[in-house]
Automatic annotation (TrEMBL), chain A:
It comes from Cyprinus carpio carpio. WD repeats lie at residues 133-155. This is Dynein axonemal assembly factor 10. It is found in: Dynein axonemal particle. It comes from the Eukaryota. Pfam families: WD40.
UniProtKB/TrEMBL annotation, chain B:
GO terms for molecular function: nuclear estrogen receptor binding. Residues 209-239 have a biased composition (Polar residues). It is found in: Cell projection, Neuron projection; Dynein axonemal particle; Nucleus. Residues 35-119 form the CS domain. This is Dynein axonemal assembly factor 4. Keywords: Cell projection, Coiled coil, Cytoplasm, Neurogenesis, Nucleus, Repeat, TPR repeat. Gene3D superfamilies: 2.60.40.790, Tetratricopeptide repeat domain. TPR repeats lie at residues 386-419. The lineage of its organism: Eukaryota, Metazoa, Chordata, Craniata, Vertebrata. One of its GO terms (biological process) is inner dynein arm assembly.
Amino acid sequence: MSSALEKPQIIAHIQKSLNYTVFDSRWIPCSAKFVCMGNFARGSGVLQIYEIQHGELQLVREIEKAKPIKCGTFGATSLQQRHLATGDFDGSLNVWNLEVPESPVYSVKAHKEIINSIDGVGGLGIGDGAPEIVTGSRDGTVKVWDSRQKDTPVVNMEPMEGETKRDCWTVAFGHAFNEQDRCVCAGYDNGDIKLFDLRNMSLRWETNIKNGVCSVEFDRKDINMNKLVATSLEGKFHVFDMRTQHPTKGFASVSEKAHKSTIWQVRHLPQNRDIFMTAGGAGNLHLWKYEYPAQRTKKGADDVDMGVAGSVNLLQNVTLSTQPISSLDWSPDKQGLCVCSSFDQSVRVLIVTKLNTV
Amino acid sequence: MTDRHPSIAPPLSNHRHVVATSVYVSLRRESEMPLIVKDHTWTQNQNTVYISVPLKGVKPASVHVICTDEYLKVSFPPFLFEVFLFGSINEERSEARIGNGVAVFTLQKRRDESWEQLFTNIDKDKQKQIREQAVLKVQQKEAEKSKAKAARIQQEKKYALETMMKLENKERDRIQKMKDEECARATAELDFWRETQRKTAEEKENQQKTRGTGPQDNQPVNQKTVTLMRNTGDTTSGQRSRKQTAKDLPAPRSAGCIQISFTPRVFPTALRESHVPEEEEWLKKQAEARRAVDTDLAELDDLREDERNPDWLKEKGDKLFMSGNYQAAVNAYNLAIKLNRKIPALFSNRAACHLKLRNLHKAIEDSSQALELLKPAVAANASARLKAHVRRGTAFCELELYVEGLQDYQAALEIDPHNAALRADSDKICEIIQGTT
C-alpha cells in the first residue's frame, strides 16, 4: 500500500563547500550547531563550529590545531559542559571546551599511531555509570579512558606478545544499562569483530566477517544490548541480534549487500532504534528498517537457546556526491535532521521526512 | 503632368505603393483611352444620391474608386466612369458597394437639396484641377490611414508585450512566494525547536542546580518558581537527587588489560591483502595432480592394486629412504612418477635419493622439476620449495658449481630467513667462491 509518496524522503537541506578535508561532523547536543573536524592542506587540524540560521550555515568559530583531527564525540560529557573529545593523527586524545579551545581539558598521548575511531558513553544524561571514552587505533589496540585518571587508560585491549597487529578501524560502546555493565565492540581491518565485557574484563565474543570492518554501532548504548550493526568493505553489512548468545555459534545475524562499495558508516536514529542509515563509498545514503522475527529465540539442536535474526528493508536511498560519505550524525534533538560530511570537502545538512510514520 | 496622367510624384511608401500601382495601371489604361461608361443610373432624395454603375463583367476586385467631395471616379479597366458632382458631398459618410456586377455609390449630400443633374459643367482646366486634387487627397488619405494603422499595430504590440510581462512576473512572484513560505515555515520550525531545546536545557540546568552540589557555570536563571515546583517532597525526586550527586562518583574503573589474538586463516592474510588468485590456483593444481593418473602404460597390468597408487608408492619410497635403501627408494619413486607426473613431492624426494647416491645431475634435474611443479609460489608450498632449493643447491655445490649453488641457497633463505643452518651454509659457499676467484 505504501506508495512512493509515503516513503521517507531524504532531502538535502543545506550544502556547504569547505576548504579542507573533513573527516567527522557531530551535532552539539541541545543546539542547532555542529562541529566539523578535519585537516587543512597545510597539515594542521581544524575544528569548525557551524550554526543553522535561516536555512544557511553560519560559521560560528574556527579553531586550528597542530595535528589533523580524525574523529570526535560528545558521548562522554555532561549536557552543561558539552566538551568534545577528539582523536588526532598523532594518536593523542584531547577533550576540548569549545568556548575555551586554547588548551584541552584533558589530554593524553593515547596511541602510537593515528586514532581511527572514538566513542563516549555515560554522558549527555543518557545511561548510568562513569563517563568513559574508548579509542581504537592503527596500532591494533583499543583503550578506554576516564577523564579523571591521567595518562593511563582504564582498560587496554592489546594484541598478545608476538601476535601480528591488525589495525582497529572502529569502536563502539554498548550494554551500558547500569553502573557496572558495559561492553566495547571493536572492528578490525581483517574482518575481526570483538566484543569485550568491561565488567568481567574479558573477551565475550568474537567473529570474523572476512572483509575489513569499517563501522560498528549498537542500536542503543544504554540498554541491554539489543542489536549491533557492522559494516564492511565490499558493500556488506551485518546486523547481529545481541539478545541471545549461543556458546559456540555466537549471535545470529542477517547480512545485506548494498552500495556496491565500502560502507563507511552506520548510524541509528536516536529516536527509533530500528531505523539506521548507511553511508557508502559512492556518495550514497541508504535508509534501512529492521523487522524483528516472530520469535527472537529458538531451541537449537543441543537444546540451547539460539537467536533468530530478523530482516532488513530498504526504505530509501539517495546519492548526494561522487566521493565517499565518511561521516554521518543524527541530531539527538530533532528527528530526521542529520549532518553528513564527505571527501569532496563538503558538509551537508539533510532532513529525512516521515520517520514518525515508518 | 497632363490631363490623363494623375500624379505619381509623391514618394512611395508601402501603402501608397498600392495606390500608385493601381494609379499606374489606370494610367496605362488611360493612355490606351479607356472606355467611358455612360450607362450609369442615378437617383436621389433630399440628402442622398445613389449612383449605380454597371461593371460590365469586370471583377469587383479590379474596381478602383477615387472620391472627393466634388468628384467621383470609378476605374475598372478597361472602363472608366467619372463624374464632377453637382453639389459637394460628404465623402466620409458616403459608401460604395461593389458586387453583383454593379457598383452602387451612396453619397451623402452636404446640403440637403435636390440636384437637378449629376454632372456639373465645368471647363477642362477646372476638371483637370479637380482630378489632380482628388488624387492627391486620396493619396494623403491613404498615407494617413497607413500611418494610423502602423501606429495602432505598434501600440497593440506594446500592449501585448506588457501583458505578457505582467503575466510572467505574476507567475514568478507566485512561485517565489511559495518558496518563501516553505522557507519561512522550515526556519520557523527550526527556531521553535531551538527555543524548546533551549528551554528544556535551561530546565534541566535548573533541575541540576536545585539538587546539584555547587554548580560551576554561571548562567543566571530564574530558579525560584522552578524550585518551588520541584521541592514537593517527592520520594522519586529525592532519589533522583541522590543519584545525581552519586552520578559523578563511580570511581574510575580499576585498570584492566585484555589480551587478544586475531583470527587465523588458511592463508594468514585478510581478504583484501590475500593473494587469493594465486592461492586458488595452487589448490586447484594440487587437486588436479591428485587426479591425474597416467594409465596408459602396459607395465601396469602386472602391478598389484597397491602398487598403482602413487601415494602408497611414495610412502614406500619414504620408508626405504629412511632405512637407507636409496636405490629401492628411487625405484619406488620412478614407478610413482610414471603413474602421476604432477606430484612435486615425488620429484623432490627422488632428488634427495639421488643426492645420497651421488647422482648429482639427476638430483639437479629432479629438484628443478619439483620446483617447476611448485609454481605459483604461495605460503602453502613454502616448505616444499625450501627443501627443493636446498637439495639443488647442495647438488650444485658437490659439482663445484658454487655460483649456482649459492643462488639456490639464497632463494631458500628468502623463503626462510630465520634458518641458522642455511645461513651458515650459504656463508661458507660465499667464502669458497671468494676464495677461488
